[in-house]
Specification:
Chain lengths: 373, 257, 308
C-alpha cells in the first residue's frame, strides 16, 4: 500500500469499476440521472421556521465538519450553534440528559458505536430514517432507525518528516530505535476512541483478532519498554511542532492535520502495510424531543445526501454511502486523487458490539500491568 | 537585624524565577514560530482579531465579578456573625470550607446535573456557573477572610460602634468592611484567578468561558495554542494587578496592615 | 481550631433594642433575627448545591440497576483502580511536600527586609495567576521545555547531558510532581505569606540577642509557631494535587493511572461509559480526602491546645 497524494497504481483498481473520470461531470449534468430524490421544500420551510439548530462535539477540523456546517447554513439560512467541539461521546449523551427539554439541548449527536447503543438503551434517541436509507450498508445502521453511521476511517500513522527522517510503514517499523520518544496516541485507550482503535489495529498486526486485543497491548508494552512510546496526548500542535512527531490516529484526522500543516511542516500519512487494517465508524442520532425537530431532519437529509457525503469525503473521512457513491460514479475525479488508495477501505470489517465490550474489559485489565512508562 | 538577604533566600528567589520563567519563555518562543524558519507575531494577530476570544474573556470576567458579589453577600456576613455571636458554629464553617476539596469537580457537576434540571432562566444561562464557582473559591476565600477576622478585634469594634448608636448596616459599611479590606482583597483576587482558570464545569455545562476557549483553540491550532497560553497568563495577571492597584492599601495579600 | 468564649455581651443588644423601642417588640426581634438569617441562608445554599449533589454521587456509587449493590465499590479493588489510588496518593503527597518546602522558602525569602518591594508585588501577583495556570497550557509548556524532544532537553544534550539517559522522564510520577510544582508553589506562597508575616521581627531580634543561632530560632520559635499553618497548607496543596485532572491528562494521556483521569475515562470518555463506576471512584476520592482532613483536624486541635 502506498502513501497518499498521488498513488496512481492503487487507484487504477477502482477506476476500472466505472467509466473514465471524464464521463462523470457529463453524467451528473444529465437531468434525471441522479439516483437520490431532492429534499422536499416543505421540510426546508419547516426547518427554517424552527429558528436554528444545536449540534455538539463537532470539531471544525474533524471530517470537514467546519465546511459542512458552513455550507448547510449558507444553503438553507439556518444558523447552527456548535457547542463543546472537543467534547467526548459520553459528554454528548450527558448533555442530552442534563439539558433535556431546554432550548440549548443538542438536536443530534455524533457518537461512537458503543455510545449509540447506550443512547438507544436509555431512550435518548428518536427514530429517523433518511431518504437515502437503503443505500447505507446494514452493518452501519440500526434496524429501528435510531442511529446510523455517518463516516468511517482506518487507523493510520502520521509523521512529521523533519523529526522522523524515514517514514514508518509497518507496525514493526515503529520499534526501530530511531523513533525513540516519538510515538504518541491521542489519549488513553480506555478514554479515547482513536487510541482504543490503535491498540486493536496493533493486535490485528501481531497475531490478534477482533476477539483478541491482548497482542496489541503487549505490542505497546514493548514499545514503552524500548522508549519509543511517548505517553503525552498527541495533538495537531504536538505533531506539527515536534513534541509528538509520530501519531497513531484516524486517517481522516491525520490527513486533515497534514493538509493544515502545509507550509508549516512536512507531514506524511500512511495506512500501515502488511496487516489487516482496523476501522470504525461514528454514528448520527437524533435527540428525542429536541428543540428543533424539523431543522434536525433537514440536517440529517443534508448529511446523507450526495453533497453532504462528498463533503465528508473531502475531509478524508469515507462516508457510509461510499460504496453507493462509487457505484454511481458520483465521486469527482479531483477529490478521488486526494484520497488514499481504495483497497483497504473496500474490505474493512468492523468489530461487533460484543467484541468491543470484551476488548474494553481486557484492555482495562491488561494495560496498566503491561505498559509501563 | 539582618538587612541583607541571606544565601538561602537569594538561592530560593533565583531558583524560583528560573523555574517559573523558563516554561513561559519556551512557550513564547514557540508562539512566534510561523512554520519553517519564519518567526513573527501572526498567531497573536489572529487571536486578537478573533471575536470569540473577547466574548469568552468578557464572560469569564463577568462570572468572576458575580461570584465575588455572591461571596460578599452570602459568606462575609455569615462569617462575621459566626465570629461575633456563635463561635460554636465555627467548626461547622471550617468543615464546610474544607468540603469543596473533598468532592472532585467532575463528580460535583454530575451530581448537580442529575439533581437540577430547571428553571431555565437559571440553568440555561452561564450565571448558573456562579454556584459551583462559589464553592470552588470557598476554601480560599474563607481562609483569607478568617485570617482577616482574627487579626482585627471584631468584638471591640462592633461593641464600640453599637454603643455609639450605629445599627448593623452602618457597622458593616463604616467599621467592619474597611478594616477587613485587605482580607477581602485577597479573597477577591483568589476568586478571580480561580474563575478565570476553571474549566471542568464550564465545559461540561457547555458554556463558552475563557478557559473553554483556550482549550478548544489549544488542541487544534498549533502556534495559536502557545500564543493563547501566554495571552491568557498575561491577561489574568493584568486583571489581578488592576484589582490590586485599586485596593492600594498594602502590596501583599491577606495579612494585616 | 477555634474554641472561643461565649457570647455574653448584653450591651449592644440592649442598645439596639432601646433604639428600636424596647426589647421584645417586633422590629427588635427582626433586628436580632437578621444575623441568623444570613447564616441560615448560607447553610441552606451549601446544603442545596454542595451536600445534595455529593449525596447523589455517594448513592449512585452503591445503587445498581436492580437496587443497592457493592459491585462497583468492589471494582475499585481491581489492579487498575488500586494502582490509580496508590499513584494519586503518592503524587499528591510529593507535590504537596514540594509545594510546602519550595513555596515556604520562597515566601520567606521574599518577606526578608532585604528583598525589593517590587519583586514582592510581582511575585505575589504572578503567584495568583500561576496557581491557576494548570491544564493544557501548562502541560504544553512543560512538554516543549522538558519533553523527550523539548527545547531544554535538546540544549542539555548539546552540552553533553542526556537527562533522559540519566533516568529522568517528564512522563513519570517525578515529572508530574515537577509540573505540579508550577501551581503548587505559588499557591503555597499565597497561603503562607499572612502566617509568615505573623512571625514578629521582635521575636527574631530577641532570640538573636539571647545568643540563638538561625537554626535554633527556627527550631524553637519559628517552626512551632508556624506549624499549624504549614499543616493546613499541606492539606490544601494535597487536595489541590489530588483532584488535578487536566494537567496529568494532557501530559500522560491517562497512561499513568490516576483517579481523576480514570473517572473521566468512565464518565466523559469516548470508549465506554459507566456512571456508577465513576461515582464509586468519586466516592473513593471523597473517603480519602475526608481521612486526610480528619488527620489535619486532630493535629490542629492538638496544636491549638499547645498554643494556649
Amino acid at each position: 500500500m502506498q502513501q497518499t497524494g498521488g498513488g496512481a497504481r492503487g487507484r487504477r483498481d477502482w477506476l476500472k469499476l466505472g467509466l473514465a473520470g471524464l464521463a462523470v461531470p457529463a453524467l451528473a449534468a444529465l437531468p434525471g440521472r441522479r439516483a437520490q430524490a431532492a429534499i422536499p421544500d416543505a421540510l426546508v420551510a419547516a426547518a427554517k421556521k424552527n429558528g436554528g439548530l444545536n449540534v455538539i462535539a463537532l470539531p471544525r477540523d474533524w471530517a470537514n465538519y467546519g465546511e459542512i456546517i458552513d455550507s448547510f447554513t449558507a444553503k438553507y439560512g439556518i444558523k447552527i450553534d456548535s457547542a463543546n467541539p472537543d467534547g467526548s461521546s459520553a459528554q454528548e449523551l450527558q448533555a442530552l440528559r442534563s439539558l433535556k427539554g431546554q432550548a440549548r439541548c443538542p438536536d443530534s449527536v455524533d457518537v461512537g458505536p458503543s455510545f449509540a447503543l447506550i443512547g438507544k438503551q436509555q431512550g435518548l434517541f428518536a427514530a429517523n430514517k433518511v431518504s437515502t436509507w437503503d443505500s447505507i450498508p446494514a452493518d452501519m445502521k440500526d434496524a429501528d432507525g435510531e442511529w446510523v453511521g455517518d463516516y468511517f476511517g482506518l487507523v493510520s500513522f502520521a509523521a512529521n518528516r523533519s523529526v522522523a527522517k524515514t517514514m514508518p510503514m509497518t507496525w514493526a517499523d515503529l520499534k526501530k530505535p530511531e523513533y525513540k520518544g516519538m510515538i504518541a496516541l491521542n489519549g488513553s485507550p480506555l478514554g479515547a476512541g482513536a487510541a482504543f482503535a490503535a491498540v486493536f489495529a496493533a493486535a490485528l498486526a501481531n497475531g490478534g483478532s477482533h476477539d483478541d486485543i491482548a497482542p496489541g497491548v503487549h505490542f505497546f508494552g514493548e514499545l514503552a519498554k524500548l522508549g519509543n512510546f511517548n505517553p503525552a496526548k498527541a495533538t495537531p500542535a504536538g505533531l506539527v511542532g515536534g513534541q509528538t512527531p509520530i501519531t497513531i490516529d484516524w486517517d481522516y484526522l491525520s490527513l486533515g492535520y497534514r493538509q493544515k500543516a502545509q507550509g508549516k511542516a512536512d507531514v506524511t500519512v500512511t495506512i500501515p502495510e502488511g496487516s489487516t487494517p482496523y476501522g470504525s465508524f461514528y454514528c448520527q442520532a437524533v435527540t428525542k424531543g429536541g428543540p428543533n425537530p424539523d431543522a434536525v431532519k433537514l440536517w440529517m437529509e443534508y448529511l446523507y445526501s450526495d453533497e453532504g457525503q462528498l463533503l465528508f469525503l473531502k475531509g478524508f473521512a469515507h462516508p457510509v454511502r461510499y460504496a453507493d457513491l462509487v457505484k454511481r460514479n458520483a465521486v469527482p475525479e479531483a477529490l478521488a486523487k486526494e484520497l488514499p488508495p481504495a483497497a483497504p477501505y473496500q474490505n474493512v470489517k468492523f468489530a461487533s458490539q460484543d467484541q468491543l465490550a470484551k476488548a474494553q474489559k481486557v484492555l482495562a485489565d491488561l494495560w496498566p500491568k503491561v505498559v509501563k512508562i | 537585624m539582618s538587612a541583607r538577604l541571606g544565601p538561602v533566600a537569594v538561592l530560593a528567589i533565583v531558583l524560583g524565577i528560573v523555574f517559573f520563567l523558563t516554561p513561559l519563555i519556551v512557550t513564547f518562543a514557540f508562539s512566534l514560530w510561523e512554520g519553517g524558519d519564519r518567526y513573527g507575531f501572526a498567531a497573536y494577530r489572529s487571536l486578537v482579531g478573533d471575536p470569540d476570544l473577547w466574548a469568552s474573556l468578557l464572560l469569564s470576567l463577568r462570572l468572576a465579578a458575580e461570584t465575588m458579589l455572591l461571596g460578599m453577600v452570602l459568606l462575609v456576613p455569615s462569617m462575621i456573625f459566626v465570629h461575633l455571636k456563635a463561635p460554636g458554629l465555627k467548626p461547622l464553617f471550617e468543615f464546610i470550607a474544607a468540603l469543596p476539596f473533598v468532592v472532585p469537580a467532575i463528580a460535583l457537576v454530575a451530581g448537580l446535573s442529575a439533581l437540577y434540571t430547571g428553571p431555565a432562566w437559571l440553568i440555561g444561562t452561564p450565571n448558573y456557573l456562579v454556584i459551583p464557582y462559589f464553592f470552588l473559591a470557598l476554601p480560599y476565600a474563607y481562609r483569607a477572610i478568617d485570617v482577616g477576622l482574627s487579626a482585627i478585634d471584631v468584638r471591640t469594634l462592633t461593641d464600640a460602634a453599637h454603643s455609639l448608636g450605629a445599627g448593623w448596616g452602618q457597622v458593616f459599611r463604616l467599621v467592619l468592611l474597611p478594616n477587613l479590606s485587605t482580607a477581602l482583597l485577597g479573597a477577591t483576587l483568589l476568586t478571580l484567578t480561580i474563575v478565570m482558570g476553571e474549566f471542568t464545569f464550564a465545559s461540561v455545562l457547555l458554556f463558552k468561558t475563557f478557559a473553554v476557549y483556550i482549550n478548544d483553540t489549544g488542541s487544534s491550532k498549533v502556534t495559536e495554542a502557545a500564543a493563547l497560553s501566554l495571552l491568557s497568563f498575561v491577561i489574568t495577571w493584568a486583571a489581578m494587578l488592576g484589582v490590586l492597584l485599586t485596593g492600594r492599601n498594602t502590596t501583599d495579600l491577606g495579612g494585616t496592615h | 481550631m477555634a474554641e472561643g468564649g461565649q457570647d455574653l455581651s448584653p450591651a449592644p443588644q440592649a442598645g439596639a433594642a432601646a433604639r428600636h423601642g424596647g426589647a421584645g417588640t417586633v422590629p427588635a426581634l427582626l433586628a436580632r433575627a437578621v444575623p441568623w438569617l444570613f447564616v441560615a441562608a448560607f447553610l441552606a445554599f451549601v446544603a442545596a448545591f454542595m451536600l445534595a449533589p455529593m449525596v447523589t454521587v455517594l448513592v449512585q456509587a452503591v445503587w445498581g440497576d436492580h437496587g443497592p449493590t457493592l459491585a462497583y465499590v468492589r471494582q475499585l479493588g481491581e489492579y487498575r483502580y488500586a494502582t490509580a489510588f496508590a499513584n494519586s496518593l503518592i503524587l499528591s503527597a510529593a507535590a504537596a511536600a514540594v509545594g510546602v518546602v519550595g513555596g515556604g522558602l520562597l515566601a520567606y525569602a521574599l518577606l526578608r527586609p532585604g528583598a525589593p518591594g517590587w519583586l514582592r508585588s510581582a511575585m505575589t501577583s504572578f503567584s495568583a495567576v500561576a496557581a491557576n495556570f494548570a491544564g493544557v497550557p501548562l502541560a504544553f509548556a512543560f512538554i516543549s521545555t522538558l519533553g523527550t524532544l523539548g527545547l531544554l532537553t535538546a540544549q542539555l544534550k548539546r552540552l553533553g547531558i542526556d537527562i533522559y539517559g540519566l533516568g529522568f522522564s517528564l512522563y513519570s510520577l517525578g515529572g508530574l510532581t515537577l509540573t505540579y510544582a508550577y501551581f503548587q508553589v505559588p499557591l503555597m506562597l499565597i497561603i503562607i505569606t499572612p502566617a509568615l508575616r505573623g512571625l514578629r521581627a521582635e521575636w527574631r531580634d530577641a532570640a538573636e540577642n539571647l545568643g540563638a543561632t538561625v537554626w535554633q530560632y527556627w527550631w524553637r520559635v519559628g517552626l512551632p509557631v508556624l506549624w499549624p499553618s504549614l499543616l493546613a497548607a499541606f492539606v490544601l496543596l494535597f487536595g489541590n494535587a489530588f483532584s488535578a485532572y487536566a494537567t496529568p491528562y494532557a501530559l500522560t494521556a491517562g497512561n499513568i493511572q490516576l483517579v481523576p483521569t480514570e473517572i473521566s475515562n468512565v464518565l466523559s470518555g469516548n470508549v465506554m461509559e459507566s456512571p456508577q463506576l465513576g461515582a464509586a471512584l468519586a466516592a473513593g476520592m471523597i473517603v480519602v480526602m475526608t481521612a486526610v482532613l480528619l488527620v489535619y483536624w486532630l493535629a490542629a486541635r492538638k496544636a491549638a491546645r499547645w498554643r494556649r
